[in-house]
Write a structure and sequence with these properties.
Strand content: 5-15%
Shape: globular
Strand order of the largest sheet: 1-2
Structural class: mainly alpha
Largest sheet: 2 strands, antiparallel
Radius of gyration: 23 Å
Number of helices: 11
Order of helices and strands: HHHHHHHHHHHEE
Distance between the termini: 94 Å
């Protein structure tokens, strides 16, 4: 006699909970790729030949030098909106205010189902503008230069990383402090929950855009070709457009993010191009006590 057993397709509460847990804890593919890239670069730097250039993976002096340089660039970044970019600050403020007035109209224009070529383009724009991916690219350039003893390649990665740290750090802090609701979270562009660091209320400014423009500025500064510079900023602009098109951000979020990224990139390139003998004052800690240090090129 054959007995037929029917198995229900319905999962138990325990299985459902386990499924949700796995879906939450499984790292995104891009995050996993970026982490693997960083680990690979670190391992390559450790096995670099002895004649390779000093780098932050193997040299304490290189770490101290990098910290001092980042402090000097941070000072230029903080005072940049007043000196020397005061005019640009007024222009950005005006553009931000104008865009703010039409945020909801722009969101409504792009709302709804997205498909076709434009969906594919903006999907690509969202993917390649991920700040974690940018940090991985900077680390790859830096590590490759360190391993192969190509100082220019290592310096490019160094500048990329510094600009990204400034841009991403500033946007990360501002997101939580401002607490603006994302366009998919709230119907109004004026919904705020400041200082709550709440998911869905971290819209202003756009980190993807800031990161993209910081990277674009550094790379564009390295090329003499006007077409190369245009390509860098076109890619960064696509990142900002993609965030708005897919209602990840308000348009004004992107305006501020682009300004922050550009300011971060400019701070790095300005510091690097400072003439010998120029100095700046930056706060430091000496044996736990606050102090000021003169930083510059001599």
């Amino acid at each position: 006699m054959t007995k037929t057993v029917t198995v229900s397709g319905r999962t138990s509460p325990v299985q459902q909970s386990r499924s949700r847990f796995l879906s939450i804890t499984r790292p995104p593919a891009l995050l996993s790729f970026s982490l693997l890239l960083l680990i690979a670069v670190f391992q390559l730097a450790l096995v670099a030949p002895l004649q390779a250039a000093e780098n932050v993976f193997t040299s304490v002096s290189a770490i101290k030098e990098e910290a001092g340089r980042l402090a000097g660039e941070g000072k230029l970044f903080l005072k940049g909106p007043v000196d020397p970019y005061l005019t640009g600050t007024f222009v950005t403020a005006g553009l931000f205010g104008l865009t703010y007035l039409f945020d909801e109209d722009i969101r409504n224009e792009f709302a709804g189902s997205h498909h076709g070529v434009m969906r594919g383009i903006t999907d690509a724009g969202n993917t390649v503008s991920n700040p974690l991916l940018h940090l991985g690219v900077a680390a790859a350039f830096y590590g490759t230069g360190a391993v192969t003893d190509q100082v220019k390649v290592m310096q490019l990665g160094e500048e990329m990383g510094e600009a990204l740290l400034l841009a991403d750090g500033a946007t990360f802090v501002l997101k939580g402090v401002i607490g603006r609701g994302r366009p998919y979270q709230t119907g109004s562009n004026s919904s705020y929950r400041p200082f709550q660091f709440k998911d869905g209320y971290d819209s202003l400014p756009s980190m993807h855009t800031a990161s993209s423009f910081a990277l674009a500025h550094v790379v564009a500064a390295k090329t003499e070709s006007i077409y190369g510079k245009a390509a860098c900023y076109a890619a960064a602009s696509l990142a900002g457009f993609s965030r708005v098109y897919q209602t990840k951000h308000w348009a004004s979020d992107v305006i501020l993010g682009a300004a922050i990224g550009e300011l971060a990139g400019a701070a790095v390139t300005r510091y690097r191009s400072a003439p010998a003998g120029s100095v700046t004052v930056a706060p430091v800690a000496i044996e736990g006590a606050p102090a000021l240090a003169l930083l510059g090129r001599f």
